[in-house]
Amino acid sequence: MAAYPLFLFFFLSICITTMVSSNKTYIVYMNPSHRPSIHPTPSHWFESTLQALSIPPSDHLLYSYSAAAHGFAAVLFPQHLPLLRRHPSVLLIHRDPILRLHTTRTPSFLGLSPTSVPIQAVESASRDVIVGVLDTGVWPESPSFADGAVNSLPPVPGRWRGACEAGVDFSPSLCNRKLVGARSFSKGFRAAGSGKEFASARDRDGHGTHTASTVAGLPVTNASLLGYAAGIARGMATGTRVAAYKVCWSSGCLGSDILAGIEAAVSDGVDILSLSLGGGAAPYFRDTIAVAAFSAAAAGVFVSCSAGNSGPSRSSVANAAPWIATVGAGTLDRDFPAYALLDSGDRLAGVSLYSGKGLGSKMRLIVYGGGKTNASKLCLTGTLDPTRVRGKIVLCDRGVTARVEKGAVVKAAGGAGMILANTAASGEEMVADSHLLPALAVGKKAGDLIRKYVQRDRYPRAVLSFGGTVLGVRPSPVVAAFSSRGPNAVLPEILKPDLIGPGVNILAGWSGAVGPTGLAMDGRRTAFNIMSGTSMSCPHISGVAALLKAAHPDWSPAAIKSALMTTAYTLDNTKSPLRDAAGGSPATPFAYGAGHVDPQKALSPGLIYDITTDDYIAFLCSLNYTLQHIQVITKGANVACSRKLSSPGNLNYPSFSVVFRERSRVVKYRRELTNVGPAGSIYKVKVSSPDSVGVIVKPLKLVFKRVGQKLKYSVTFASKKERSHEKEAFGRISWTNKRYTVSSPVAYTWKMEK
User: Fold this and answer.
1) What is the model's pLDDT at position 150?
2) What pLDDT, on a 0 to 100 scale, did the predictor assign at position 108?
3) C-beta of residue 437 within 8 angstroms of C-beta of residue 417
């Protein structure tokens, strides 16, 4: 960590303090066509508007937006709201939302071998690509950004307009040819009175460093988490440049700060935006990320967002706008086994990243419910009775609080070890953690067996052991139980998530300010950490998108997403359909979208589904939005909806979501494919559908005479009979020839009115 002279430290120590008052932060969207010519910039106009309403800008205005949105964020009192809402130039006002973070082996698992000639060529070209990571900041001293290999990178592209901002414990000199920018945005956080932190791009949480190094970290030899997952750690696109935008703080991520971060990133010149954060389902015009991502996509920036960690609940997917690549999580073929040997003779397998001294070979008593209430079974803070658990192994149910926090509670109460047992919500999915005491996690079946054993045996006992790192796990990938699912709660005609990537037990760079558990009591420090979540899968896709951008610099964000989706796979390494960790049954497109990313195939997809900004506007005009709501998203003063789609599902999307209703048992969609493969390519259609749906595709063959040629086709879906008892079914439409398979999932949903 850099040391600073005392006087400089005080100049940089802008402390984020709690503000207690009746004011609140709001985001205000303005109609750009109303700006008088006397105001040279939007910012000048916004200040003048507030001044005219007797709202001093110097006291209230936080941010002005023109690249990510058209409007401003301000601290307002209740009496200000009716004044602004009556203003003819105001399109929409809403409270500043609080959003949450969605929280080595992967390059080889994804087929990104550094010896592959195509990958080597793309890696070299990716040096001109810049990825903006909006997260908790960056630890610039991480070897993922700061080892000797950074000197081998050419100078930063001249088009880059970003900056490395000075902040508390952060000198601009910490940026280099790999970490090309670092900024922090905290005005919304400060105005919300959410806590106390120092204004700086430095990452004191670890999440941002983990995601940024996953995108584009340099190769680091002998990387591990306290001996686990040892090997070479590298990002998806090792040549790509990284710019860190700190928008998340201790209590979350404020929408106003996120908008400001995207505003800066687009203006700075990023090519890719990676956001491992999000909120709940909301109409696009009230979704801060959706509004900003629209402007970013219109500017040619690919936006990748995490799907959320609210699975396996239905309709839990976040970041569901069609101009965003929404990423779910799957497992790797690497595991960290640990075992609980019961005195009954049962040996149950689990996982763990515990690296300290074990419990030895002596059996210890197991306690389940080591307190006076049922809450003790969840091992919540203050629920365990030290006289009951001291020196024993404590069985804890997963849920409510963080997994590592339960271990800390057990340790504080004097427990010798912990078995963390899944409930139905998590099924058989096991996530490894670097616990502070000997501990392992087990799936629901093993957990139920241990629960029964403890309840029936007078002196239940066990011994715990830890097995290190194991490769070649089968089956893999498996859809993570925590990965958020469809159907899309905002708009069921758009299938979300779009695809999945590695998101379970991912090794990547870490902050030097916090231990691997993230707990205040964890005094350990490590350059790398292993984490799980769609926060981890999102930067994998962002990094692969950077490679595609390097290979095809003229492709639009929609074209890149199409390539990622239509080449994704749906069979695991046992050649069986992808399974769902939540219950062990086959997963569906509501869990994995188009499938698991395949970077090698995505580099050459054959055909793409492209979408222009005008197409997205026609899509928005097909929704039940007012013109003002559409203008909030598009920043467009002259959106008149002269063109609209017959149905939102008619957007030229790489997947299909068909909703059957009582009055619409026949649904017809149209699509257009662009040839990015060789001239003279001929494709034939292949349809897979459930017995309950008839599918007719016209034409059955597409003949592309030249590169770049566009051809259209139509698909008619007909529900063969009323099936009110059948809620969903799935199929697939693929265009194939000897070289390419361009595949799209189809989700069918029956919403028959009674």
Assistant:
1) 65
2) 52
3) yes
**What count of Cα atoms within 13 Å lies in the side-chain half-sphere of residue 88?**
4
Amino acid making up residue 208: G
In degrees, rounded to 5, the angle at the alpha carbon of residue 125 between the alpha carbons of residues 124 and 128 is 115
CB 712 within 8 A of CB 670: yes
Tokens at 254, concatenated: 């404020």
Nearest alpha-carbon partner for 46 in 28, 59, 23: 28
Distance of CA 399 to the CA centre of its chain: 21
Distance separating alpha carbons of residues 354 and 339, to the nearest angstrom:
12
Residue 170: CB atoms within 10 Å: 27
Q: What pLDDT score does 111 carry?
A: 53
> Hey, CA dihedral for 248, 254, 258, 261, is it positive or negative?
negative
Long-range Cβ pairs for the range 695-700 (8 Å, 24+):
695/731, 695/733, 695/746, 697/733
Query: For residues 284 and 620, is the Cβ–Cβ distance under 8 A?
Result: yes
Q: Hey, how many other C-beta atoms are within 10 angstroms of the C-beta on 154?
A: 10
> Phi and psi at residue 449, in whole multiples of 5°?
-65, -40
d(CA 567, CA 606): 9
CB 331 within 8 A of CB 477: yes
Contact 66, 260 (CB under 8 A): no
DSSP string, 39-63: -SSHHHHHHHHHHHTT--HHHHEEE
- pLDDT for 148: 61
Helix pair angle (255-268, 288-298), 10° resolution:
10
Residues 326 and 304: their CA atoms lie apart, in Å, by 6
Domains within the chain, CATH numbers bracketed: 6-97 (3.30.70.80), 99-333+477-602 (3.40.50.200), 344-454 (3.50.30.30), 607-751 (2.60.40.2310)
Q: What is the per-residue DSSP string for 571-608?
A: B-TTSSB-EETTTSSBP-HHHHTT-B--HHHHTS-SEE
Q: Tokens at residue 250, please?
A: 């201790």
Query: Strand pairing of 666-675 and 607-608?
Result: antiparallel
- The total of other beta-carbon atoms located within 10 Å of residue 469's CB is 21
CA distance 103 to 210: 11
138 and 212 Cβ atoms separated by less than 8 Å? yes
Strands 656-661 and 197-198: unpaired
Listed as ranges, residues in the chain with pLDDT below 50 are: 1-21, 104-107, 109, 117
Beta bridge pairs of residue 12: none
What is the set of active-site residues?
A: 135, 207, 535
Q: How confident is the model at residue 105, as a pLDDT? A: 39
How far is Cα 633 from Cα 150, in angstroms, rounded to an integer? Answer: 39
The Cα-based distances of 446 to 14, 257, 451, 466, 482 in angstroms read: 51, 44, 9, 16, 19
* Residues written for the chain: 754
The pLDDT of residue 9: 25
Q: How far is CA 524 from the centre of its chain?
A: 27
